[in-house]
Amino acid sequence: MVHPLAPPSAPRGPLAGIGILVTRPARQAAGLVSQLAALGATPIVFPAIVILPPSDPAPLAKAHADLDRYDAAIFVSSNAAEYGVPSPSRWPASVTAYATGPGTAAALMAAGLADARIPQTTFDSEGLLALPALARVRKRRVMVVGAPGGRDLLPRELRARGARIEFINVYERARPRLDRRHLRALEAAPTPLISLFSSADALTNLHAVLSPPLFAHLAANDCVVSSARIAEVAHTLGFARVHAAASAEPAALLERACIVMALHRL
Q1: Topology of 19-49+175-264 in CATH?
Q2: Which CATH code of 3.30.70.100, 3.40.50.300, 3.90.1150.10, 3.40.50.10090 fits the domain covering 52-172?
Q3: Residue 243: strand, helix, or coil
Q4: Given strand 19-22, what is the order of strands in its sheet?
Q5: Which residues, including other chains, have CB under 8 Å from residue 252's CB and lie 6 or more apart?
Q6: Per-residue pLDDT tens digits for 9-25
Q7: Count of beta carbons in the 10 Å neighbourhood of residue 97
Q8: Which uninterrupted H or E stretch holds 29?
Q9: Which of 60, 81, 123, 192 could form an S-S bond across to 107 if both were Cys, CB 3.0 to 4.6 Å?
Q10: Interatomic CA distance for residues 261 and 14, integer angstroms
Q11: CA distance from start to end of the chain
């Protein structure tokens, strides 16, 4: 039995005693924050991207009205799923839905669209392109659902395979407007500090909006990124200790963060 005046026990877990900077958009951060706290970390919610509705909703409305013209729809992120799925009753059985990974597939299911196909190799564009069903797309109409400014690998490669691609922008990314509360949380974050990045935009946004000393403080610590492409951006911006996770899925980011922390404790 613990004495009522005894000091609280220190947090336990593979991430005990460290700060983890969560840079995902605020609405997507809650689940990851809960998992981090369960592992003993001190999560710092620091949204580096703001998700906005599209400035022109007409293309999405037209795509929804003409869904039966398509053979497939590829949702490139959970935001694409949240903003781009119509009423499930309007989804034709002839249109196959694809998701970049389990997180996006879960967002599709939450929106009422079950049975989305996901990659079997890596949870990214390369993984989708490796699916046999997307190898045979000549003359097939494919809707790629996402936001402006993303990677062009998927539509470019599918066009090269003969598909008729329409990119439908269903949301937009913007830089965050950070207030003093966010900055104080970052300044007071415990160290070691590990920043999690699943978007190159999150890195470049923080580089743009933080003061040089505060960004240098981040770069002097570790960061975990979701791909080799984002790792290159992190190195370019001055991060010396960059660790690539297997994917942008929370489980992959947490696994890599635990490995990084274990290295600190050696």
Answers
A1: Rossmann fold (3.40.50)
A2: 3.40.50.10090
A3: strand
A4: 42-45, 19-22, 193-197, 222-225, 241-244
A5: 123, 226, 245, 246
A6: 455 789 998 999 999 98
A7: 21
A8: helix 26-38
A9: 81
A10: 7
A11: 33
